[in-house]
Amino acid sequence: MRLSDHRHAFFCRHETAHLTVYSSSILLLTMSSLLILKTRICLKYISPLFNPSTAGFTPLNNVISKLSVSSRLLCTKGGSRHAGNNRKEDRQREFNIRERLPFPKSVFAAGTAKRTAEYQKKRAEEEPDFPRKNKRVEPPDHPLTASEWKSLKLTSPNPDRFDVRMISSMLADGTDINVAKSLLAYVAMDTGTLSYELLLRYLTLCVGSGHHSEVFDMYDIMRSRFRTLDTGASSLFIKGFSRTERWKEALTILENIKRAITPSPRNYGDTIAGAVLHGDGDTAWALYAELMEKGLIPNQETWQALFQCGLSHQGHEDGLQAILLHMRDNQIYPEETLAKDIKAWFDSLPEQKWIGSWSTVDPRGVCRSCQAELESIQLSREEYTQLKDRVMGDVIQGRDVFNKTTPEELESFKNFVKRKPAFDVVIDGLNVANIGIKGNQSQTVDSNEVVETSSRMINGNRMHLSSFSSVIAKGLNTYVNKLLEVVSELERQGLVILVLGRKHMQRPSRSWDRHDMSLVQQKAHCFFTDNISEDDPFLLYATLHSGNHCNFVSRDLMRDHKACLPDGATRRLFFKWQRGHQLVLSSYTPGKRVRFQRILSYDTIVQTNGGSWHIPYDENGAERCTYEVPQKWLCLTNAK
Amino acid sequence: KDVPLPQSKADQTEEKLDLDIWKSVMRLQVPGVEEEEEEKLGGEEGGGDCAAGGVTGQEEISPLEATRELVVMWRHAGKLVPETMTDEELGILAELQTKSSKKKYLKYLAVKEGHKKSHKQKQEKKKAERSERIQEDNRIRPGGLRGGGEEEGELRNTFLLQFWGRSLDKLLGWRSAQAMVFGQPLVFDMSYEQQMTRREVENTVSQLMEVEGWNRRAADPFHLHFCNLQPDGGYRRELVKRYGAEAWERLLVTSTERRHVDLFPRDDLVYLTADSPNVLRTFDNSKVYIVGSMVDRSIQSGLSLANAKRLKLNTARLPLDDFLQWETGAKNLTLDQMVRILLTLKERGRWEEALEHVPKRKHDGFYQEKPQQD
């Protein structure tokens, strides 16, 4: 391990002490076989090539496997010799934030959260799922006569609302429509009428299975029978009608819905799809304009319909481009099916030779298909100022300045930031200090050290047992070590550092060693908030205040702070800035070089420069969290 | 595309199976179901002016009318909506913007209506039982006076008249009056009206009434203070409405629009809030505890702590984690639970007893041994 020169002596001492403690604590743990530690949730990097066969690999095994035989006799658990991933590292290479790391993915990459969750689930004990009691009626598989229905009803354990429950289970099973008809016939003959509820469910069955003439009949019956229709029936009729030649009537039904409530995006989507299906592009676009005007969020299927419409009829090119720009403005990503339609539409454009290809983007922000450089993740000057004001106004102050801080503290913080030079990196002290307390990342501690210290420990030499336990406790919990390591690493790169923390960090305690803390304060500027104040908002503001070059170190996804922002546009701005400026510790191993996950240099958003379009899209079946961005791109270039 | 009907085996049976018979049955019927429904929902037009039958050819109708129709049809569709609605409720419903908020409000009304109905049914059942008992008595002893222990008109030998509720009220009234003079103050901070919706204010007032009731029945009541109570605010309006103007005037609590910091020395005040970093270890008889009277269905954390910070007051939270194996639910308790805990502490001073009032669903029992004092 290379160390900066002027701290060399101290560091050696510090390192060995740390290793001593660490190894002995591991020994102690293994001896008492307290191996079942609760895993803490941490955004551990999991490679996309994650091999499930190594999932059971524990860090302890790795350490134990390197222990000498004598010390291994003490362990109740043997370790495999072949565990571990021996990634070669060039220790001579200077670390740099912007440098390409062996870790290709960031926390913001789509699917990371899902993988992490699965990994956590695998590690957690699986509780058996109790099957829920099924108390539904089984629908018959062929039409029954009235008498058969009657007997079925009488034998059922719960005869009231038998008809509604029966047809509901038919819906769930997708039973043949004639069976439902026979039920309706029985109920009509039995009671002389049919309830609206029953008809509604029957209608759902008809629309679902595409019996159009049946839908028309139902429409006539329900219209004559009831003065108005409820929203559910109207939606079903719209859906049913828009697939047939009577699709224009769906527009009338839509008008009727509008009287009571705003129609749903799906209602609009169905009518638009109907118009497109029957080649009436103008109506479709008029409806789309109305939907947008009402401030509704269109479904992806609606866009799909419009692109398909553009495929069969020329024109409306501006409208379709506007859709793409709308996706850009609202940070919406098309799904794979829609992306295919977009590609098909571009391909179909006459007099223009668009070449579409499915592509990915390399970490430097270059499209692997057309080598074009993608938009930078950096914010423009106006956006930056706007975001800074919003974070100060809404996140820190909010409606009540006392919620997160006090006016005095805010004032002193503002002065502090003004007085100091611009920072290069702002560290969330508590967040960094809390990483991997349990050390569940793979440990690659120097085995000789471990053996030496452990054997020394066994001989009882230079260490009393009483003091030993306290040292172990310190070794497991010494937060400040991690903080110091991160700070030292960043200082080595010659960066101006700010560490944000809370006042209790300054009080010497078991986990906040005074000496280490003073070292941190020598290497970096520090600002400590009150213990009951929030520190994250200050972190965000300090970073924003320092300017565009400044990054912050935290594993926090800042979702609660993002939620304090008033409108979607500002939230998206915040997210973009966060992706471009947040450094996440990829994994922490005591005594090893601190590494960060790479910051993406490009923005994942629908983008064009006239001659080409780059559209990120969500893969089918892949789940993406709100704080993640897709990894796949549709690249469209115009080869004139 | 219509699927042709398959020749099912049922056709050959002696009972001919006509699958479409229900259509003709339905077509023969005349519309006229919703008219009754409309009457039920009430309204200024009386729901009878539906000359324009059918969906088409409708002239413009008022949003209130449209809302009424919506409720009727949702009722038909089996959604959870009330059977009767007042005009005021319909107005509130029409003003709600989104479909989900409408549904939520209707569900609330429906549930309320259900409670009312079941209550009424129980009452009637009791009434019927009572009248039956009276008849029974009359059959056994015609003309005999009813009432416990009357035997053939002979008076019972007792040294007390029947202990009526009125006597108890008088006793508790004296106690409360005594507390008003000598009791330890307990402040309810009513400054959260702005952060609450109408529903939440109603819930808070219900809880405050319970607080007053529990306090009145205690052996050694607190002297309750309702501070920051704005004279023209919704809070006060709701309180007066629920208590009745006369009872509210006679209530043995101090309600004031002044702040608690103006009434008591700042050092004596302790603001109780679940967000506080300090744990309340012992109940101090010389302190004035403040409870923020607020219900937040939409979770707004840290409001009362912010208030306490603003006025530089001491804060404390209950030692729930030290005594209870907390399972689920938020650590903020209702006002009546709070006052019961404080009353128990005041009388006995034992946390285990006091924390019996924490809802059982939220925790998994008490810790066996006393927690380690750090």
Automatic annotation (TrEMBL), chain A:
Cofactors: Mg(2+)
Per the record, the similarity remark reads:
Belongs to the PPR family. P subfamily.
EC code(s) of this entry: 3.1.26.5
Annotated region Disordered: where? 118-144
Q: Which organism is it from?
A: Salmo salar
Q: Where would I find the PRORP domain in this sequence?
A: 362-458, 476-635
Where in the cell is the protein located? Mitochondrion
**Listed InterPro entries:** MRPP3_PIN_dom, PRORP_C, TPR-like_helical_dom_sf
- Keyword terms: Hydrolase, Magnesium, Metal-binding, Mitochondrion, Nuclease, Transit peptide, tRNA processing, Zinc
Please list the residue ranges that the record marks as compositionally biased, kind Basic and acidic residues.
Answer: 118-141
Which reaction does this chain catalyze? Endonucleolytic cleavage of RNA, removing 5'-extranucleotides from tRNA precursor
Q: What PANTHER family does UniProt report for this protein, alphabetically? A: MITOCHONDRIAL RIBONUCLEASE P CATALYTIC SUBUNIT, PTHR13547
Protein name per the record: Mitochondrial ribonuclease P catalytic subunit
Q: Main EC class of this protein?
A: hydrolase
